[in-house]
Amino acid sequence: MKYNRLELLFEDDFEKLSNTKILLCGVGGVGSFALDALYRSSITNITIIDFDIYEESNLNRQLGSDGAIGRVKVDRLKELYPNVNAINMRLTPEIINEFDFSEFDIVIDAIDDIPSKVALAKKTHKKLVSSCGGAKRLDPTKIEFANIWDVIIDPFGKKFKYELKQAGFKEDFDVVFSTENPKKIEGLGSFVGVTGSFGLAVASLVVKKILKT
């Protein structure tokens, strides 16, 4: 049976997974791994939003990129995960403010644009799981879960907190971040052992939240 081992693990709570409706914002190095882990865990009612196309530089860390250079990411992932709903769109703060999030049980933020992350937090914090930055790191064992206000060391997470405070945001939501100091290099050098682990950590946190409901 396809989900037999999940049923053994989650027992009577297993049905909660397949009944959950998720919005996944961003399907790059973090989001694509979160999508894969959730989909394999029977959570197939997932809407994915991304505006990007695959480039050669994505091959080292993004699921779906093999053989798909130049293709729209959400269209390619729709082929690999047929039950998902794919939206090819850039999530700007303006679009987020107008978007209807009410139909989703959980919103995942796997985007890297700070203004859009702030807008998502303000609109969806009660059901939000957000990812901080996984670039410039080598050690996946430094990945942690925390309340947004408890994020430390991670420069991206600290910038996120600062902009939330500037926006007058005082609520809580869960984030995945790393306590590993990023390497001091130019550009966003990334290792799939970390970015992929971020995505898997996001999926784990989402499953835990579902099982608690």
Automatic annotation (TrEMBL):
GO terms for biological process: cyclic threonylcarbamoyladenosine biosynthetic process. Keywords: Membrane, Transmembrane, Transmembrane helix. It holds the Pfam family ThiF. Residues 6-129 form the THIF-type NAD/FAD binding fold domain. InterPro entries: ThiF/MoeB/HesA, ThiF_NAD_FAD-bd, Ubiquitin-activating_enz. The keyword Membrane applies. The chain crosses the membrane at residues 188-207. GO terms for molecular function: tRNA threonylcarbamoyladenosine dehydratase; ubiquitin-like modifier activating enzyme activity. PANTHER family: TRNA THREONYLCARBAMOYLADENOSINE DEHYDRATASE. This is tRNA cyclic N6-threonylcarbamoyladenosine(37) synthase TcdA.
